[in-house]
What we know:
Layout: H1 4-12, H2 15-27, H3 36-48, E1 52-55, E2 62-66, E3 74-80, H4 107-123, E4 131-137, H5 148-153, E5 162-164, E6 187-196, H6 211-229, E7 236-245, E8 255-264, H7 267-286, E9 290-297
Parallel strand pairs: 3-4, 3-5
Antiparallel strand pairs: 1-2, 2-4, 6-8, 6-9, 7-8
Organism: Providencia rettgeri
EC number: 3.5.1.14
GO molecular function, one term: aminoacylase activity
Amino acid sequence: MTNKYNISEKLFALETFSKKTRQDLHKIPELSGQEFKTSQYCRELMESFGYNIRLFEGYTGFTAELIIDPAKRLIAYRTDIDGLEMPDLTCNEHSSVHEGCAHNCGHDTHMTIALTAAKYLSENRSELTHNVRFIFQMAEEDMRVPGANKMVEMGCMEGVDEVYGLHNDAAFETGYIKFNSGVMSSYGSAWTLDVHGVSAHGSTPHKGLDAIREATRIIDYMDYIVAKKTDPFSPAVFGCGMINGGTIPNALADHVQARGTIRSMDEETDKILKASFHEIVARSEAGGFKNHIRSKRLSRCRQSPASRKSDL
């Protein structure tokens, strides 16, 4: 009979497999919706473990099932598979071979955890009391590419009784797993702001409308909104990760595009931040600028009942 002690022994026996898998995946990161090699690598392993694969036509995501008894409950585990559009600075034999793309968010680790768990469950299927499905989700990083929502629409969650997932965190001590009662992750919305001003020579700034200064003013003022207009006991963040504008150093920029995220832990704070953002941009337009905001809700994760402290 399997118990927690020999489970640990069996899992540690998979350490070599886990290390090689993580290193292999770290070398082949791919952008959202383009995870062709990654998807193939994971599919081939899951097939070798004896899982039934379901593809989603036109997309790189897939599911893999191990059904021991159709009458039993179905437990799912989800992992993301895409990389980030940024360089890999690790500089070792396992570094990314795809220039400008890296697994800097840890999705190589997420996939490795899923694949190692899948291998263990397959090798010990006689001990299983539930059916299992692994969901390999494409395009978690880029809101512009169909990802989780598209897979749900196409049926990846059909018949699932419980679903689990995790995110690695380098701030935690190795060997620990963090659970939280209630909300674990924040509301998240990605925004894009376009500010259109009027170009003028740098020696005559009074004849133009400086889009760079206006964009930074809007972004800076949002920090004030977070500090003074939201409940300090409800964490919130307004972040700008990209800003581009201007063509030459001696002229005012007539266009700036900035991109970032809004994050909060409750719906009311989320509404305050978004309403304030639109209000500030509207004031800017009253000064002669022509602005446009685009935003899209990112996924929001709550702990499932099975992941609450009281159930552990």
